[in-house]
Amino acid sequence: MSSLATALAGSIPLAAARAGSDVLKLGVLAPLTGPGAPWGLAIDGAVRIAAKEVNDQGGLEIGGRRYSVEVIAYDDQYKAANAVTAVNRLIGPDDVHFIFGPVGSASLLAIKPLTEAKKTLLFTSSWSKDVLTNSNYIFRVGPTTEEFAPATIAWVKKNRPDVRKVATISANDETGWNSQRIQKQYYTEAGYEIVAAEHFERQQNDFRALITKILASNPDSIELDTTPPPTAGLFVRQARELGFKGLFTKFGGFDVAEIVRNAGAENAEGIVGMLQGDPSSPEWEKFKAAYAEFHKNELNDFVFPYYDVARLLFAALAKVGNTTDSDAIVTALESLAPFPGTRGDLTWGGEKAYGVNHQIYAPVFLVEIKDGKGLVIDKVDIA
Amino acid sequence: MQTLGRILPWLIVIAAIVPFAVNGDFTFHVAILIGIQALLALSIHLTLRVGQLSLAQAGFMGIGAYASALFTRDAGIPFLVGLACAAAIPALLAGLLGGIILRVRGVQFALLTFMLGEAIVLLFVEFVIPFGGNNGVMGIPPIALFGIPLDSRQQIYAFVILVLAVVYFASRTLLRGNPGIALRGIAGNEALAQSLGTDSLGWRRVVFAASAGIAGISGSLYAHYLGYISPEAFNITTTINALVMNVVGGTALLVGPLIGAILLVPLPELFRSAVLYQQLLYGLSLLLLVLFLPQGLGSILRRPRT
Amino acid sequence: MFQQFLMVAALSAATYMLIALGFTLIFGIMRVVNFAHGEFVLIGAYGIYVAQSLLGLNYFVAVPLAALAAAIIGIAAERLIFRRFAGDELAGMIAALALAITINGAVTAIFGVDGQPVERPISGVIHIGDAILPKDQLFAAGIAFALVLATWLLLVKTRLGLAMRAVAQRPEIARLQGITPWKTFPIAFAIGCGLAGFAGALTAPIYAITPYIGEGALTRAFIVVVLGGLGSIPGALLAAVLLGAIDAGISILYSATLATLVSFVAVILVLIARPNGIFGRA
Questions:
Q1: Which of A61, B13, C121, C155 has the most other CB atoms within 10 Å of its CB?
Q2: Minimal Cβ distance to C99: which of B110, B119, B287
Q3: A80 neighbors A107 (Cβ within 8 angstroms)
Q4: Whole-model pTM?
Q5: Looking at the complex, does the CB of residue C274 fall below 8 Å from at least one CB of chain B?
Q6: Domains of chain C: which residue ranges?
Q7: At what angle do helices C2-30 and C233-253 cross, to 10 degrees?
Q8: How far is A357 from chain C (nearest CA, A)?
């Protein structure tokens, strides 16, 4: 039985107060426990890595004053109600103007009216199409299905020509409905037949009935979409045991370690997914070491985009010269593209789909699981 | 002891004024949540008074919340009418169902209402139109009195306290007046009461319906304050929290649920750094309370009426 | 597809039977609604994790150990907590609730909120006709059915079982016959919680080990027991089969959420006709 209200993680100020008497507070609002935790912890880790880097250099120079960076984190457990209470704390007594996260779309949509009203800048990776529409202060740090699906599906067409019939699953909520709708649209446009499109409840771990239903339609490949990686691993294992021998693709959040752990290395062999960082690159190793100072779990690719955007924010603040003029900071952010990031240049886009250019574009990596490890097989530029 | 007992309601009044002294948006946020949860705890209390524990109360709260939210947002009706619907619809439902399920007593009734509450939540999850499914309902209009929206936390809190006071005194009247005498007769010795002409089932239905209506009011306030609702806010965990407020505050006193709410709702805020142990401490405290103080904390100050 | 449906339904029914049987046994003999029953399933699952992954024991040794752990904790709970509430149903239920929160809190405090990895000792499938039967599910279902049969035999064929049934039906007369409830209560709890522990231990390798599995198990137990009749063992078994079939069928045809909803509605309808369940007594 879960306890009253939310599980709120305590705030842990970074030990760099000597740098300056001014403090720049960064908020983190993400699932730090439960489903989605690998992503939430990655966001938290990324922001802390960026903050520590800057603090170790004596702080951030903004408008002639030196700021030390402090991170205040809250756990929304992927639930909207918890996010609302947490954001009330962040923009209220904590007096935070910049929030990283959330991950869940329902969380974001619930807090959006509050942050927009208070002109709080939000840097999120939430998947819903309503994230950026009708907003001024929200930025999406990584590509979502709308941005990368044409490229990833084109890759499947070229490299896995045996696939004709596709089944897809995702969670039964805003994130899942949205991503599945777009996957279905682009798969169909590319000439594939969608033979099954199902949803599951986020806490579900018994997929036998669902798999029986899907396998009855004989798919060549199952698209795991935005299914959280631990759940995806469980699904893969149960599906393999019920006789599915086809391809699994995961063009949505990917986490090799989680999937292998839950599916078993043998069942996970050959799964193709998409990462926002290259596990074989020196940057990955560098992050691994830095991340281990804050969290014990394996490094997740979400660290890359969030770290880049934190640095982008620092640059914008330095350009504007203060930390409170939200409109000026937004303009500065928009003007800083292309911005050198850890995987390539970051550019802004999204006006056509969302009405505002606050969607970041950056290259992504296609990864195949081999012998329990992720192997990069391609790098794709998202136009 | 008696004087202490008479002080109790005044302590509640003082507690209600505290947020104005402390001030701050977040203080009022917690205070508003206390008020809303107190209403739900009160609704469980009423069912306990007729000797039956209803575990469906959060489900009724949800019905009130969704009804009020959807009617005001999509059909444009004013908030106060929405609030009235939020009370009426669950009350009607409870009154109708009560005729059948109130025939069952004890734990069987508790389990029945448990399932009813869960079924209600599943309806909200399964039917994306009109309930929005797991995503819930967004953009709910704020509390507005006669067309004027309440835009400050202080005003909203004042309104919540007003509603709570009205509900409290109405409940007290119900439990004290002629209906109350009938109810006490039923609680004391039902066969005897029935032989004297009291329609036991009828009265219990009234109380059950009233409790559902109060839960619905709680739901409406919740929906219009947060501006956003989702099905998981109305599941069995919410009901259990409200039940625990009764256990802690005292099941024999009408102020018991209020005491429970004041003590329990702000707790997670105090223990924020010990999150991992929070639940364990909560459970252990509850166990000790149930084992050694079964009448709840309110009983320390006041001897329960027999 | 039909054979596959049978497979899915069979494991579901077997699991429900195990959990509901323990729950209804405890209620029948002690009139306690064990709100903490789901958490004993949790103890079984985490017991497997501790025994297998931390202590390195063989799975087939770990399963009865995990169930034993659940049984022992059950006896402790009966001695320390439920004994006082033997007559008071409502108070017993609230005490059970407090226990549930405590157990869940303890597990979360010790092992954390995230899931634990499970080693899967049985793998591979058997083919029968068109159906693919995963061996681990067959094993779990088989052991579950065997345990149910063993419990039934215990209750019907042994003196101990006779004593327990006597206490359930007529506690005062049982006392006159020299059967002390204070001896049968802990045994009832041991068996009931042990069965729950087995359910958790057997299904852990098939699903996952997270702190949330207790709530789902409890809801399942409630719905089966309410349908079958509180305190009735044949009722619990019949209801488990019915609900397992409905669950599997509708999940395969539509969705899991709809399946649960339909189960609830079906039970509510049955209860309107027979408010005490299929085989229940008032």
A1: C155
A2: B287
A3: yes
A4: 0.85
A5: no
A6: 2-211
A7: 150
A8: 37
